[in-house]
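Cast an eye over my tokenised protein here and flag anything odd:

===
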Amino acid sequence: VQLQASGGGLVQAGGSLRLSCAASGRTFSRYSMGWFRHAPGTEREFVAGINWSSGSTYYADSVKGRFTISRANAEDTVSLQMNSLKPEDTAVYYCAASSRLYSRNRYEFDYWGQGTQVTVSS
């Protein structure tokens, strides 16, 4: 699976951004998808995931209620709507695909996009 993330940018605190990830190469619908982020000086952390079977979603506590992950299998895309952004959300965001039904572990994701920068100013 090849993944291409887009939609990052600079936004003020309290604002919104929508990230998109376009997939190609294999049967997208059979992969669970996740968004991770990586800020300088930290490890890459899980943000949100969506299961390939039921479409159920799960989130890191730090973004729950503010971020929404969704997927459109017919279009081979997954999106991350980010609302009420905070400066601590500043990071490079990556989409990733996993053959597992459910995972928050970055080592269980098989394919990664190139990352898109999100910067939230205070």
